[in-house]
Every structure is written in structure tokens, then in C-alpha cells.
Design goal:
alpha+beta; Triger factor/SurA peptide-binding fold; 4-stranded antiparallel sheet; 3-stranded antiparallel sheet; 9 strands
């Protein structure tokens, strides 16, 4: 479940068709065309079909489809369709979300929360700015709000009330103090341990038969093949030893290396020692940053390594991780509070899924 949606403008007016083509509204969550980049105004709307009742309030298939697009926006890039393997889960999640938002709205009304006129006016101005022209906005109101600005304002008010209640019940209660973050840091030391790693580049002379998806473990090179590879590898080593910088080694890798890293100047970036073949780890453990190894025969290939950096195993200091950790813990707390609010509101609600 998500929190504040910036006035919910992306899904404003759950019965208004914002940014959704008519075809998408006619096909029960399997639209035939993606939504345009700008707000679309249909010439007519088909009758909405109920999908749920929340304390008597009807939620429709249009509400559901908009939320499905919100959960899986990539559907717009695939002719408006949802992956078959995911569609049922997307629909289920969307249905729970629109039910939750209706429950939140009803709770806000029960608490007699209101929206100041000037704030509503600002929200209406932001909403109108989504349209390319004033004429397009007027046509939208005519077709999709029965010509009533009051309908539009009612939907905006609903969105603002949902935001306000979620802010009070979730956002304002989800703060994480420095002391709380430190307590978590001390309780979970393994999370902040960084293994020993090397930043390196490679030049590799590969065997004639290389791994493929159909043959992930090809036979090792024959003695004759190894001999031919060694000739090429010796020449590569001579050139590699002559390089003085990251750029020089990288340009040589692009020119003569036969592994996939050649297109990135041979750069493997940072690699944990646990991921390195033993022969390569043994060789580079003796090198200082900037040094180039000799030939290393590992996994059937000849490899030359340039070490760019070596980071010993260490535990990150709290000061290094505190900002990101507090943000993570805040997100987790918000999710927990949303779930608790949802459970609380559902407990006394009458919800029918149709």
C-alpha cells in the first residue's frame, strides 16, 4: 500500500477517466491500446460495472483498472495489457487498494475532516494544468463530469482528505530517531559488514569452445589449443605490462580481450573475494593498486588482471549508514502502519467483492 500520492492526481476522481483511452475502459482490465502521454477525453463513457461495495459505496471496474495501471504502469507500453502470469495478482492488489482508499476516505468524513477552500483551489489549479488547453479541460468536464465542476471538486476533495488522514495516521507517526536507528545498527551487525573486495580490469584469452546456454560446461581446451592460446596470451601480457594507466589498460582490453568485459574497458568494478576463482585471487592478493598480474590460467582461459583498488573486509560505521538506514526503517514503519490501519478499518466495515 502506498501513502501520499501528491493529491492523488494520478488517480484523481476514481470515476473520471484521466489519461486513459476509451478502449481501455471498455474491456474489463484488458485494454487494447496504451494511454496517451496527455490527458485523453473520450466522446462517451460506457456504463461502469461494480466490482465492490464498501459500506454501501460502489467501486467500479474503472476505479479498478486505474489502480491496476498505477501498480503496473508498464502495461501502457505493451498495448495496455497486463502479463497473464501477473494479472490476477495485480487485480487483487488493486482491488484491495481501492477498498483501502475508500475506507480511509470514509474514516476522514467520520472524523469530520475538511479541506480549506484555498487549498482546494490550489489543487484544482494543479489538476487543470495537466491538460494541454483550457478547451480540452472544458471538454473533459463536459463529457466525464456531466459538465459539473462540483463533481471535479468533490473528487479533488476526496483525494485531499485521503492524503490528510494517511498523513495523520501513517506519515506523522513513522519518524525514526537517531537512537532508534543506532539500536537497530547494534542489533544487526552482520548487515553492515563489507567483505574484502577488489576493483579490477581484465584481459582474457578464451578457449575456442566457450560456455553457452545450451552447453554451460564445455570440454576443457586440449593441450594443442592451450599452446595456441598461450602464444596469444604472452603477446597480450607483453602489451599489458607496458600500460601505465587505467585508460591505457582499458583501451588494450577493448582491442584484444576476448571476454565480455572488453566492451567496458575490461572493468569488473568491485568484486567480492568470494566471487573470484582461487587462482585469480591468489595472484592479485600479491599486487598493489595499479599493478598488472602475470598470466593466470583459470577456468580454461588465460587472464591478465590489473588491480585498481583493494578494500579489506570491514564493518561500516554507523555515521556512514545512518541516513540511509533511517530512511529504510521509516519506509518499513510506514508500511506496517498502513497495514495496521487497513486491518483496523476493515474490522468494522462491510465489504462485498462482486
Amino acid at each position: 500500500m502506498r501513502g501520499n500520492r501528491n493529491l492523488h492526481l494520478a488517480v484523481i476522481a476514481l470515476t473520471l477517466a484521466v489519461g486513459m483511452p476509451l478502449a481501455a475502459q471498455q474491456r474489463d482490465a484488458r485494454p487494447s491500446a496504451p494511454a496517451p502521454a496527455t490527458v485523453a477525453v473520450a466522446t462517451a463513457l460506457p456504463p461502469a460495472k461494480p466490482v465492490a461495495r464498501v459500506n454501501g459505496t460502489v467501486l467500479t471496474d474503472r476505479d479498478l483498472l486505474r489502480e491496476m495501471y498505477s501498480i503496473f504502469p508498464y502495461a501502457r507500453q505493451h498495448n495496455g495489457g497486463f502479463p497473464r502470469a501477473m494479472e490476477a495478482d495485480i487485480r487483487r492488489g488493486a482491488l484491495k487498494m481501492i477498498e483501502f482508499e475508500e475506507l480511509v476516505y470514509q474514516e476522514a468524513k467520520r472524523q469530520k475532516m475538511t479541506i480549506a477552500p484555498e487549498r482546494l483551489a490550489k489543487a484544482e489549479k494543479l489538476f487543470r494544468e495537466q491538460f494541454e488547453s483550457e478547451q480540452q479541460y472544458k471538454e473533459f468536464v463536459r463529457v466525464e463530469a456531466n459538465g459539473s465542476l462540483q463533481v471535479v471538486r468533490a473528487k479533488l476533495t476526496r483525494s485531499l482528505l485521503i492524503d490528510d488522514l494517511l498523513k495523520a495516521e501513517v506519515e506523522n507517526r513513522s519518524g525514526i530517531t537517531l537512537a532508534e536507528a543506532r539500536a537497530y545498527y547494534l542489533k544487526h551487525p552482520d548487515r553492515f559488514k563489507q567483505p574484502e573486495s577488489f576493483a579490477l580490469q581484465s584481459i582474457t584469452i578464451m578457449p575456442p569452445v566457450r560456455p553457452t546456454p545450451k552447453q554451460p560446461n564445455p570440454p576443457p581446451p586440449t593441450p594443442e589449443q592451450l599452446k595456441q592460446m598461450k602464444v596469444r596470451a604472452d603477446d597480450a601480457l607483453r602489451q599489458a605490462k607496458a600500460t601505465k594507466t587505467y585508460e591505457e589498460f582499458g583501451m588494450l582490453a577493448e582491442k584484444i580481450s576476448e571476454d565480455d568485459y572488453r566492451v567496458m574497458m575490461g572493468n569488473h568494478k568491485t568484486v567480492d573475494v568470494a566471487e573470484l576463482p582461487p587462482a585469480i585471487l591468489e595472484a592479485i592478493s600479491k599486487l598493489q593498486p595499479g599493478q598488472v598480474s602475470g598470466l593466470i590460467l583459470a577456468e580454461g582461459a588465460y587472464t591478465i588482471i590489473r588491480v585498481n583498488a583493494h578494500t579489506p573486509a570491514r564493518t561500516q560505521k554507523f555515521e556512514e549508514v545512518s541516513a540511509g538506514l533511517r530512511a529504510e526503517l521509516r519506509r518499513n514503519k510506514q508500511e506496517m502502519l498502513r497495514h495496521e490501519l487497513d486491518a483496523k478499518l476493515r474490522k468494522s466495515a462491510k465489504i462485498e467483492e462482486l
